[in-house]
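Q: What structure does this chain adopt?
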Amino acid sequence: MLKRIKEFFKKSRKPVTSKNVKFSYTDEEILKDINLKTRKKKIYAIVGKSGSGKSTFLKLIAGVISKKHEGKIRIYGKRRLFSKSSFGFVSQEPGFIPDLNIKNNIKISGLNYAISQDMALERAKDLMKQMKLNIDLEKKPPSLSGGQKTRLGIILSLLHDPDIIIMDEPFVGLDFKNRRLLWHFIKNKRKKGKTVILTSHLLTEIQRHVDKIIILKEGKIFFKGKPEKLKNKLNIEYIYEVRFSWLAQDKWDKLKEYCEKKNIDIIEKYGKHCMFSLQSEKDKEKLDKKFDEIGLKDNMINYREPNLDEIFLKT
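A:
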């Protein structure tokens, strides 16, 4: 009966919540008032430029950072100290002991989660099957390839079958085939009722696979929601890429001035290559007309709807 009551309250609570979370290293404020509520059976991606606080926030959720923070972080409504069995943290660096063989690494990881050696080996073999990791358990981790080490690290972190999976840059070092495999693995976990929170720089892949994205900018949440809604927030409907045959400074200054007046963002410039974000097809017509007016000869490279990488350039 007690177990059923616990399960009832667990189901009614959010897997991970944070309220007014602030965190600093010495005098530098890394996170500023981070408020987040997650739901079961969802994949969340936390993205942002380097130094925006993505990994720091995940480590705070997982309790990896012992330094005190302001605000509250709760796992199913409880403090992390009482919820360690509810989540698994996959760090950027695989957490194995290089001098021990893989079998003993599995046994020790199981002990960390209060799992018997037999149960740890059984679960590891099941996860290895899911991850298509066919390796000799008598080998030592350093003998594995980079992709194999990454997958082994994930397996060792999830032996206790947690309801919440927290992954810090899990795709680093994986080729396209293994990234696809990992996405299938993550989505299968979602299907089984798990909540997944991850960070990654692979924005185009995130756009295809996650339920919600959270963009951190200068330590604050800039956006949270479905990927397709981000372009509405940033007023970007189309990407227009051009390459000019010549771009003198005076002509560039005139073009910049025009774009500022007309609310057309130049989101990237490299040499004679420019990328503009447009709100409508009429903006393209106006821009083409301006090119002619100031004597710029251009070749259109692309005109299309933006992907998440290009939208991210505007944040």
